[in-house]
Amino acid sequence: MPHPTPPSLATIRERARALGISIAVEREAFVRAGAEHLHDAVQRLDRIAADDEALPESDRR
To answer: Could you tell me the superkingdom of the organism this chain comes from (predicted)?
Structure first.
């Protein structure tokens, strides 16, 4: 399943609301940053799984 862009804050709010989760306004920036980090990780794992790209040394943790 392709993941072209990280979810917007509006999308995160909508999905959270659908699940009965409220996100405090002061935490939204952290939630968005976490979503971007996870999106980047998914993209790297998809490329690795497809054997499109070797894992760069800087990403080996």
So the answer is: Bacteria
| 3 neighbors 42 (Cβ within 8 angstroms) | yes
Torsion of CA 49, 52, 56, 59, to 10 degrees: -40
Angle of helix 28-49 relative to helix 9-18, nearest 10 degrees, comes to 100
pTM: 0.68
Both tokens assigned to 60: 């080996």
> Pick from 37, 35, 50, 55: which is nearest to 2 by CA?
50
